[in-house]
Amino acid sequence: MDALLQRINQNALNIQASSIRAFDEHISKIDGMIKLTLGEPDFSTPDHVKQAGIVAIEGDESHYFPTPGSLKLRQAASHFLNNKYQLRYDANTEVIVTVGATEALFASLLTVLNPGDKVVVPSPFFGMYQSMIRLIGGEPILIDTSADNFILTAEKLEAAFAEHGDAIKAVLINYPSNPTGAIWTEEQAKAVAKVLEDRPVFVISDEVYSELVYEGKHVSLGHFLPEQTIVINGLSKSHAMTGWRVGLVFAKAPVMEQVTKVHQQLVTTATSISQEAAYEALQNGANDAEPMREAYQARRDFVYQTMTELGFTIAKPNGAFYIFARIPEDLEQDSYQFALDVAEHARVGFIPGSGFGPGGEHHVRLSYAASMDDLEEAMKRIKEYITSLR
Questions:
Q1: What is the SS3 assignment for 289?
Q2: DSSP 277
Q3: Cβ neighbours, 10 Å, residue 371
Q4: Residues spanned by CATH 3.40.640.10 within the chain?
Q5: Which residues contact 350 (CB under 8 A, 6 or more apart)?
Q6: What pLDDT, in 10s, does the model give residues 101-142?
Q7: Is the torsion defined by CA of 364, 369, 374, 379 positive or negative?
Q8: Which secondary-structure segment (H or E) carries 103?
Q9: Beta strand 168-174 with 118-123: parallel, antiparallel or unpaired?
Q10: Could you give the C-alpha distances from 368 to 24, 293, 302, 364, 365, in angstroms and in order?
Q11: Cβ contact 343:33 at 8 Å
């Protein structure tokens, strides 16, 4: 077995399993735990979407769909992006349906990168970004954004190009952000676009939280760099469909032709029944996220106020459903140890910030995609725990 293991792809051996999942599994063994760990809506998939899935099953919609996805779903997705964010993509040649946004990201990176290529990733970041890049043989260039309210600035991006030059093949961005909940303004996005517009660099823009923006509006680099940008989206967050595994990729036709080939090699096509449900979601449920967004905003405000009063420093998130909080200076500063102590003594589950890259240490991430009852009890326990330490 040792001899066989030595022959495994070294890139696979060198990446780590998700630290988020590992920590979540570790603390799940604690009785009475309130877990604010995973990024999954606590809402159910809308009834009309579930019914569409049932109809698809009963109608024997169990055969292969076209590799890019059903045309009617691609048309609905194209209309959704145009109506919501004024991004225009031809459903026939510039949209594909993937097995979740994760496959959308991996197919896009695999299409763009050669071994040794560098990818700029603003940090803190979703951990799988780095793993995907390394698995393909690329090199992530991590830019710490913690001093800039977790927004990638044009100045820091220029500095990255000054250091790494033509070796940079792509920039991977995520607004609204996991883990910070940060969104950027149109002016901030334009400034970054200005840095990139004359460079032969791809932008891979993960916008899966685009429907969960509270103040301000969602801004995509696809507006300013349509030829360079590959937009990633999906229905997991907007329609509470994590288990249905429906992602979407939008890009100009010459790029999408290549992404589609890679997607075909990875999965052939996304699940037919899930595609039927996704069509219903986009065609007749374009605003299904609104009640969820209202509930998330109320939860965000409650958690933000409570934790701020306890001494946590938080850049107030305007999107997604996460609080990324800097641990008070009078408490344990090792984020893993702090989160473990909180889990063991307060029975509340946070994710250590160290797992999200540079700028993440001394922070914890919590998901407020939980009921208000659970959040109120969790904040009560945190307050009691911190008061006992002080």
A1: helix
A2: H
A3: 13
A4: 47-284
A5: 36, 37, 338, 339, 342, 343, 364, 365, 366
A6: 999 999 999 999 999 999 999 999 998 999 999 999 999 999
A7: positive
A8: helix 100-112
A9: parallel
A10: 15, 11, 10, 13, 10
A11: yes
| Contact status, residue 351 vs residue 24, Cβ threshold 8 Å | yes
Q: Which tens digit of pLDDT belongs to each residue from 70-109?
A: 999 999 999 999 999 999 999 999 999 999 999 999 999 9
Q: How far apart are CA 109 and CA 123, in angstroms?
A: 18
Whether the CB-CB separation of 383 and 310 falls below 8 Å is answered with yes
CA atoms within 13 A on the CB side of 121: 27
Angle between helices 128-136 and 100-112 (to 10 degrees): 40
Indicate the pTM of the whole model: 0.96
The DSSP output letter for 221 is: T
CA–CA distance, 295 with 277 (Å, rounded to integer): 24
Bridge pairing between strands 229-234 and 202-206:
parallel
Topology classification of domain 47-284: Aspartate Aminotransferase; domain 2 (3.40.640)
**Given phi > 0 = left and psi -120 to 50 = alpha, else beta, which region is 43?**
beta
| Token pair recorded at residue 196 | 């990139």
Cis peptide before 124 (omega within 30 of 0): yes
Residues of the chain with CATH 3.90.1150.10: 2-45+289-389
Give Cα 184 distance to the centre of its chain: 15
Tokens 């029975």 appear where?
347
pLDDT in tens, 336-370: 999 999 999 999 999 999 999 999 999 999 999 99
Within 138-252, residue ranges assigned H as helices are: 154-164, 186-196
CATH number at 2-45+289-389? 3.90.1150.10
